Amino acid sequence: MILTLAHAHAPAASHVHAPAHAGHGGTGLFGTVVAAAALLAALTYLSAAARLRGRGDAWPRLRDLCFATGCAALALALTVTLPGGPFTAHMAQHLTVAMAAPLLLVLGRPLTLVLRALPGGSPARRALLAVAHARPVGVLLFPPLAAVLDIGGLWLLYRTPLSAQAAHHPLLGAAVHAHVLVAGLLYTFAVCQLDPVRRRWGPGRRGATLLAAGWAHAVLAKSLYATPPPGTAYAAGDLHTGSQLMYYGGDLVEVALATVLATRWYAATGRARRRRARGTPYGPSRSSATA
Quick check: pTM over 0.85? Predict the structure, then answer.
């Protein structure tokens, strides 16, 4: 997401203030650092997956594709020129960094991969499990809280002067960028719950959170259609196109999230029915948290 300001010229020689290089040239040092980290993460992930297969363990290549594509999308969104006017390009970047890339990264199940790649009983594996099962992590992954951090942050960004203020303070701008990315990852992780964590919330609570967050995201997009963020101004056509991109693009990602949630629920229900059909004379079967 891009928060620096530049001057664009609107019709009739009036000045329109919009985020500088919104999708036109990346996000400076922050974008470069995150892009480099994303590409390094992709190489590390693919190397770990190859080692896993090399020792005879199964690891679906579709997960490789998802994670690598998410890393590439994140890197490109933060460093290359995106099409459209300033606000439209800004929203294309927002959808990629805050929604689409996090979904692809989570679908790769990186925590599961690392836990399977590390030797059993190693200090690194024990430390990683300790972090994943820590109480603060469990609190952050409570779906409603993760949704407030994610969608609530966007409301704060777009419906207060924060966006304009971050334009003039590089450290604040970098902090906002980091929050948008991390909150998007946290929310997506909390809704999908594909990796082993301290507590797994039921599909009902996660589904309700997804519906509420989708509604809040859609209302925000509609409000931006009518009024730009305080302290900024855009040409009406650019504002409308960007808001529509946020609205319909957000819907697509939310449908994908709902599909993941429903698929996991269906699979879990099927396993439970098979256990009941067998009678489970020696107690319930254990299902692997790292499947």
Answer: no
